[in-house]
Amino acid sequence: MASSSSSGLTFKLHPLVIVNISDHHTRVKSQSQPPHASPSSANGCDASVSAPAAASPPPRVFGADKKVFPNFYILGWYSTGSDAQESDMLIHKSLMDINESPVYLLLNPSINHAQKDLPVTIYESELHVIDGIPQLIFVRSSYTIETVEAERISVDHVAHLKPSDGGSAATQLAAHLTSIHSAIKMLNSRIRVLHHYLLAMQKGDITSENSLLRQVSSLLRRLPAIESGKFQDDFLMEYNDTLLISYLAMFTNCASTMNDLVDKFNTAYDRQSRRGGRSAFM
Amino acid sequence: MVKMNSLEALVAQIQGLSGNSSDIHQLHGHLKQSDQFLYSESTRLAPVLTQLDPAKHSLGYLYLLEAVTSAPFSKERANELVVVVARFINACTAKQIRLAPDKFISVCRRFKDQVMLLEAPMRAVAPLLTAIQKLQPSTEHLTTLHPDFLLVCLSTKCYKTGLHLLEDNISEVDQPRDFFLYCYYGGMICIGQKHFGKALELLHNVVTAPMSTLSAIAVEAYKKYILVSLIHLGQFTTSFPKYTSSAAQRSLKNYCQPYLELANSYSTGKISELQTFVQMNRDKFVVDTNLGLVKQVVSSVYKRNIQRLTQTYLTLSLQDIANTVQLSSPKEAEMHVLQMIQDGEIYAAINQKDGMVRFLEDPEQYKTCEMIEHVDSSIQRMMALSKKLTAMDEKMSCDPSYVSKAGRERQRFDFDDFDGVPQRFNL
Question: What are the start and end residues of every segment in region (Disordered) (chain A) (predicted)?
């Protein structure tokens, strides 16, 4: 398997596809004995391909697909696993009847926290001459994720799977606050990294890089989007209101604990604390 | 084990074994055994004290000092003893004296008695404060010396020093009687400084503290509580909160009849009636030394009435205020209103040209950073308090007297429910 493709095709991958694949994998894994790879029927990858590809007559098996999705055609197939294997090549060859250069998308389901990139690889097949024998092998292609900003939000929403029946107000609030908290935490850590870097630059430990400094300066100039007195006032008032609500909540909590404590104390130590109190009855 | 002529031996031991903590424990054991011996030799001990250093040999010094002060002595000696004890309190090491707290407390008590006898209570204020700070394991502990210190502050009218001590939040109490006295004296100090809110809180603590039988301190505190409640809040509710002991709920009101009637007459708002009532019962108030407070109650009626006006009118002339509130002249009304504005009790503006008063709203907009910090610190305090309360609640749930009673009283709906909770635990 060669390292990079020479076909000149650039792939743009849509994130929903990745979500679909992982979904499928999870479903199959939970329903049956998990096979180590789950080759499935080829799907219509709606990745836009910039090089022209000819529409080819679909075989019988995929005739139904063609009727359902007349505007799409089979680009390739996907599977899960850690690396492309020989058995995959056989499936790939069979697909080559439909499309002379199918695409093979491999998703690695094992979670690796150290890895920064997506565990998705796209392979194309090429004819290479190895040891004098022409052979079809998989070569890796590069791809980019393409999405519109608005779409990203909806995909994000799908990925988080909030309880749709409303749950209880508390769980929804907790989920909402957790996501805000993680977002702020990430922002905080990134700012801290930048800050640390700039401090080191100032001290002279690292050579100062003017392009980076220019970027930071432009970012800073963009920041205070609203900086008027009225905004300060409204902001502080709202901040105060929220604080007061939490204060009230804590108050109520404390008062409730104290009430329980007083009841217990009265039961334990105070004689005749309740007139007409509860008594055992048959 | 320490025999007769071994006073010198004891001194040598003290000097030798005052190094590290294990030595100190050993020394403590020796000293406990020599207690009787020291009492018998109390007259000879004074010169021995000069051989010891109060800072390094605090424990030994304390024992000797306690034995010295236990014997009766003349007024001249009292003076020099007071000096010696004051110096000791300032110099001693906190760790060592905490090993023998009752001896330290008795030394300080006698010190205070001597100082009162010499009629110079001022000399005891600073040493007692140092003594408290050295004795208490943390600022949340109430020691037996707290009420003594507050009493001295009251006698010398050093209210500010007393107030400073009252700011600590108490959560551990050794002796209930200390707590009663502490809160009562503390309430009086706050009244003296016109911090009526804090006084109300402290007196409330005395009245609602757990007590199996009615305490005289609680009765006196209740009288003052009624008066301070009228001054500060303008009203008084006769119902007790549910955490009041049943002993207090039953009998407290019987001892405070004139005060309750005063509260009733106050709520009508008619000043003349109130004044006649006060005149009639003047002697009772004098006996309880509450006459000053009662007079403050009467003058607070005007304030209440003016405050009630702010809820009805937006602007009012000074003449009308004087008429409604039954003051004699608009000038007096102006003075009252001015005083209240200065104290922050109402928000108003006086227009002197036409003698009109305009009542304003609370100008606090709650949009400053200081307010944010204030609320934030309150939240932090509340969180700490909540933790403490939860811990106490858990401890209470495991308390045997609670568990036995709780089981006994639960409702039984079903025949099966009759098994169960043991009435007593053999611990």
Answer: 25-57
